[in-house]
Amino acid sequence: MALASTDITSIIKKEIEGYEEKLKLENVGHVMQVGDGVARIYGLDDCLSSELLEFPENVYGIAMNLEEDNVGAILLGSDEKIREGDIVKTTGKIVQVPVGKALLGRVVNALGQPIDGKGPIAADHYRPIEGPSPNVVERQPVKEPLQTGIKAIDAMIPIGRGQRELIIGDRQTGKTAILIDTIINQRESGVYCIYVAIGQKMSTVADVVKTLEDYKVMDLSIVVVASASDPAPLQYIAPYAGCAMGEYFRDNGMHAVVMYDDLYKHAIAYRQISLLLRRPPGREAFPGDIFNIHSRLLERAAKLNNELGGGSLTALPVVETQAGDYSAYIPTNVISITDGQIYLESDLFNAGIRPAISVGLSVSRVGGNAQIPAMKKVAGTLRLTLAQYRELASFAQFGSELDKFTQAQLAKGSRLVEVLKQPQYAPVPVEDQIMTIFAGINGYLDDVAVDKVRIFEKEFLKFMKEKYAAIGIEIREKKKLDPEITNKLENAIKEFKQTFAKKG
């Protein structure tokens, strides 16, 4: 049916009345040069530093260099489909990632997109990857322990909630193993874990994820992956994305630990970007702001005050050293930013002392504040005893005759070294650690053969669980060793020693 002219007129009038002038102003530029994950753009006059830029083919980038006549940007995706002359738009935003409990149990890339094949993530909240760190007033001192389940760490180099503890050592010394054991130990603690893999092989990451699934801790973990095959820009933003995910828990009164594995590879990715952007190189060809990128990342770890909910974010950065060179540029930088360091040594690892923690070099600047009183009491003399043992052991190598006191010290030290040995993926509850170290420190192991110490420990803890479970529960609840508990524990050790001696 044909429309009458009056109908057409009324439709046009109606459209004119309903017309709204919608002008959309966009700040656009053109790609001058592209390649190696970096683009130079002409014409983005109002671009902001670290602003998210929109390229064709659904590729995004971050503005890094704001120069007189162009903007240098890093690409968060493939540069294969981007050509010279392509239009680039500003977005007025910085990179955001999804945060919240919806991410738990998932493996995501540096942009928070799932890569585990389990479908999309229904996240309610988003957070910029960069953000200010809490100021002095918003923080409170670190005084709550983060139990790793590793005897040597919890006893001598304790980590507290809100702390930044560096794990440093050569390749293949057990750095990642410490991180995984720490995650496994959080099963009952209610601490959420974010593991950030930077520049690692995908097969290595797959092994980590499988281990976390096998030990049923993947449900409280987020794994952020920027693998060795990913572009350098994604490796650069990965730790910031992981940190933003951890901050969500911190700011909502919960506790989280974020692990950066490792920051040396992160520094290399940033160096690559900086050199491609033609930033002037400094020491070891790293750019001048390499210290800043790690300090602004690690400063975001904090224990918030009670008015802000009392949540915490603990940072466990890893730095790989080359041939034990702790005085290299990146290791010294990160050492100066963190609140303590756990040094792992190849010699100890190869000698079968695992975890291969160097007691002499490792330090926690929070110290006993991050320990429960019971652990503080038994571990107080442990470090000193081990340090003396190391010194005497090196002296005793010369084969001179030793007096009885020195022999006793050497015997005690060698048994304490055995006590602190621990297999991988077997974190020990804090009450079991206390009971074992108590037995070692107070000389109850001195007459046990060195090669039988670990068998003694295993059977002793089994005996305590079966016969005196109440003692362990009491230590866990009271968090201190009062004379009554000490007396009960001494009697239980003496009783067990009689049965152990009979077994022989």
Largest sheet: 9 strands, mixed
Distance between the termini: 106 Å
* Number of alpha- plus pi-helical segments: 16
How many β strands by DSSP?
17
pLDDT < 50 stretches: none
Q: What form results from the Cα inertia axes?
A: elongated
Mean pLDDT: 92
- Helix coverage percent: 25-40%
Specify Rg, calculated over alpha carbons.
Answer: 28 Å
Portion of residues in beta strands equals 15-25%
Class per helix and strand makeup: alpha/beta
Task: Summarize the structure in words.
This protein has 504 residues and is an alpha/beta fold. It contains 16 helices and 17 strands. Strands 8, 10, 11, 12, 13, 14, 15, 16 and 17 form a 9-stranded mixed β-sheet that branches. The chain has a 6-stranded antiparallel β-barrel with strand order 1-2-5-4-3-6. The protein has a two-stranded antiparallel sheet with strand order 7-9. α11 crosses α12 and α14 crosses α15. The model has no long low-confidence stretch (mean pLDDT 92).
Task: Offer a quick outline of the entry.
This protein has 16 helices and 17 strands.
Could you outline the blueprint of secondary structure elements for this entry?
Layout: H1 5-17, E1 28-35, E2 38-42, E3 52-55, E4 59-66, E5 71-75, E6 87-90, E7 96-99, E8 107-109, E9 125-128, H2 151-156, E10 166-169, H3 175-184, E11 191-198, H4 202-214, E12 221-226, H5 232-251, E13 255-261, H6 263-276, H7 290-298, E14 302-303, E15 312-320, H8 329-337, E16 340-344, H9 346-350, E17 363-364, H10 373-379, H11 382-396, H12 404-420, H13 430-441, H14 453-467, H15 469-478, H16 483-503
Parallel strand pairs: 8-12, 10-15, 10-16, 11-12, 11-13, 13-15
Antiparallel strand pairs: 1-2, 1-6, 2-5, 3-4, 3-6, 4-5, 7-9, 14-15, 16-17
